[in-house]
Amino acid sequence: MPEINMSKAINNALKHEMERDPDVFILGIDVSGGMMGVTAGLQDQFGENRVRDTPITESAIVGAAVGAAAAGLRPVAELMFVDFIGVAMDQLFNQAAKMRYMFGGKIKIPMVLRTTCGAGMGTAAQHSQSLEAWFMHIPGLKVVMPSTPYDAKGLMISAIRDDNPVVFIENKMLYFTQGEVPEEAYTIPIGSADIKREGEDVTIVATGQMVSRALNAAESASAEGISVEVLDPRSLLPLDEGTLLESVRKTHRMVIVHEEVKNAGSGAEIAATVGEKAFGYLDAPILRVGGPFCPIPFSQKLEAEFIPSEGKILDAIKTVMKS
Amino acid sequence: MKLEKDDLILLYRNMVRTRKLDELTIKGLQEGKVLSFYHSGQGSEGLAVGSAACLRKDDYLWGHHRGHGIGYLIGKGLDGKAFLAEHYGKVTGSCLGISGFHFAEPEYGALGAAGTIGSQFPISLGWGLAAKKTGKQQVVLACFGDGGSNRGTLHEAFNLAAVWKLPIVWLCDNNGMAQYTPIKDTYPKDDIADLAGGYNMPGVVVDGMDIMAVYEAVEAAVDRARAGGGPSLIEAKTARYRSHSEGSPDVSHTVTRSEAEIAELKKRDPIETFKIKLLKQGVLTEEMVDQINKEADEEIIETEKFSLDSPPPEPSILNKLIYAE
Q: Based on the domain organization, do A251 and A219 belong to the same domain?
């Protein structure tokens, strides 16, 4: 199986679906060139009507996707940074998420909103956030967050084929990570978690960029005799509760790691779910490792401090093991 | 298209039906049967019916919140049953009673309505893209009020529609009042249509109380859009007879609008002025007018009965509608 990076894997998924379905089209700022190469080369193959460069006009990008989806097309809109969603939020949470329900199920909104999240590139407070919890709170949306090139391709194909609005969040530090990706089209169901490493003593739930750090921390913990299971939800809405609860019932301990600020992040929902449904299985309080409660600083050293490190994850593992 | 005698009579009839349905909805609210907001469209019937008469059934339509868009849908061929039942929260409503005053009628190309004024601007772009792709020469009639014209989304959508030459007719119902604020305090010029020049599209002002003037202006813009000429802006000067929202005081800022002021507005009434014109032309007779009113009254009774007799939606559907399978 060829090894490609995540950017290429998503590009590959878009290409497959655009070849398969003439209703699929892309719109966004400079998508002909493609930020991080994700949409690069697609305009050459599919033309300007199916890979539409837009002005700097986020409300119109998201809203046009909503309207096009309502009218039967399958748009993939790009929001360059998730931080910009504030400009277009009405179109996403009042329109895309609610139209099907409000209109008695008479229409569907099969659109994908691709966007990037995450710190680590020195892009500071308004280009580095992780805001997945905002979207998880809205009935009508789906929220997907891949951590590997393989998952990214399969989830993107599922997202495009899904008849609902899917917010597809790509951590920008992962674009150039390599992984094995089949050349043919395949799907990964939205709402299915993946166990990235099996273990017995503690479950780490990690998303995006945190998955590889959790795996590294698990390796270090293993050297100290702690067997760590790493679970990547891959979709935050819907959340694969079955896999999550099964893992906790096995390990009896849980650490949640995400790059969002810890306060009211996706981990709060995950912890509450386990607290409600598997409390009796827990041998220790659930711990969360997340970004500190502050805007993301620019200066490299401070930015690095913001992102949860392997060391912090390892500390949390050791803490839950003490109980 | 030159309108024949029957077409003119239909325009008149549809305005009468729209007015009577508006009055019925207000009555329903007063009687506690419409448990919702209602934003009366009285004064805008000529604009709604006249503009929608230029559309095909498969054209896209966003009627704005005056009369909750029903005048446009009646102009497009719908009757009032699903509208009123929706406002009664009944399962026979346009959206199974789930939506209430922001409803859609997909079969009639009305794929949206929303509480956030101005959200229609970006969504209309998507409809325009879809229309362009099918190659069936569909157009989008996207309506908004003078209040909606203040939204930033207008700029984003006017700009992109013009850049992409989308088949959209932007239709502004300028009744001079945005909720309780008069336009002199929300817009620095006389005509909203002047915005069009900034986007290199035609912009015209019409008397929105004159249904024929509306029809002619919208028809020209629709023809242009169908032929691939891109978007246009039409501003119709109308009047709002009633308060912004039923049950709320009819004020301009904090000052009550006087009866004399409203009576002045009603001198331009689109239904009365058109009736007089058609009577003079011999298109209508007094007997025909009586007959049209009688039939509209009968329809109203039937519409009310239909809505009253319909059941509310079952709670079990609540979670089934959120996601498409």
A: yes
> Per-residue pLDDT tens for B50-88?
999 999 999 999 997 899 999 999 999 999 999 999 999
Query: Are A29 and A175 in the same domain?
Result: yes
Average pLDDT (B277-289) is: 98
Q: How confident is the model at residue B321 (pLDDT cuts 50, 70, 90)?
A: very high
* A107 and A224 share one domain: no
For residue B131, tell me if it sits in a domain. yes
- Whether A212 is covered by a domain: the verdict is yes
ipTM of the complex: 0.97
Residue B1 has pLDDT above 80, yes or no: no
Containing domain of residue A76, as a range? 3-180
> Catalytic site residue A252?
no
Mean pLDDT of B117-130: 97
Cβ distance B133 to A70 less than 8 Å, yes or no, reads no
* pLDDT for the residue numbered B66: 93
CB contacts < 8 A (A, B): 148
Band of pLDDT at residue B209, cut at 50, 70 and 90: very high
B59 → chain A, closest CA residue: A71
Closest to B168 measured CA to CA, from B130, B118, B215, B125: B125
Which of B87, B103, B132, B133 should we substitute to test contact with A (largest number of A Cβ atoms within 10 Å)?
Answer: B133
Q: How many angstroms away from the CA of A202 is the closest CA of chain B?
A: 34
Chain A residues lying within 8 Å of B126, measured CB to CB: 63-71, 73, 75
Determine if the pTM surpasses 0.90.
yes
A101: chain B residues, CB-CB within 8 Å: 98, 321-322
* A115 CA: distance to closest CA in chain B (Å): 19
Q: Is A102's Cβ below 8 Å from some Cβ in B?
A: yes
What per-residue confidence (pLDDT) applies to A323?
A: 81
CATH number of the domain that residue A314 is part of: 3.40.50.920
User: Does residue A155 sit in the same domain as residue A212?
Assistant: no
Report pLDDT for A198: 98
Domain count for chain B, please give it: 1
Q: Which of A69-78, B203-212, B237-246, B316-325 has the lowest mean pLDDT?
A: B316-325
Does residue A222 surpass a pLDDT of 80? yes
Q: What is the per-residue pLDDT for B319?
A: 83
Buried b (16+ CB within 10 A) or exposed e, A139-158: ebbbbbbbbbbbbbbbbbbb
Domain containing B125 equals 5-310
Q: Which of A127, A137, A252, A258 is catalytic?
A: A127
Q: Tally the domains of chain A.
A: 2
Reported as a single tens digit per residue, the pLDDT across A2-51 is 999 999 999 999 999 999 999 999 999 999 999 899 999 999 999 999 99
Mutate to test the interface with A, among B92, B120, B129, B144 (most CBs of A within 10 A): B129
Residue B169, domain CATH: 3.40.50.970
Amino acid found at A277: K
Across the beta sheet with A287-291, the strand order is A194-197, A228-232, A202-206, A254-261, A287-291
Residue A156 has pLDDT above 90, yes or no: yes
A146 CB-side CA count, 13 A? 31
In a domain, B316, yes or no: no
